[in-house]
Amino acid sequence: MNQRQYFNEIAPRWDSLGSEEDRVRLARMINELKIAPKESILDVGSGTGAVIPLLRETVGNGGRIVSLDISEKMLQIARGKGFEGNIHFLQADAGAGPLVGEAFGLVMCHSVFPHFQDKPAILIELKRMLRPGGRLVICHTKSRPQINTIHRNIGGVVGHDLLPDETEMRILLAEADFEKIEVYDESERYLAIARKNSGTGLCCR
Question: 0.90 cut: is pTM over it?
Answer without folding.
Answer: yes
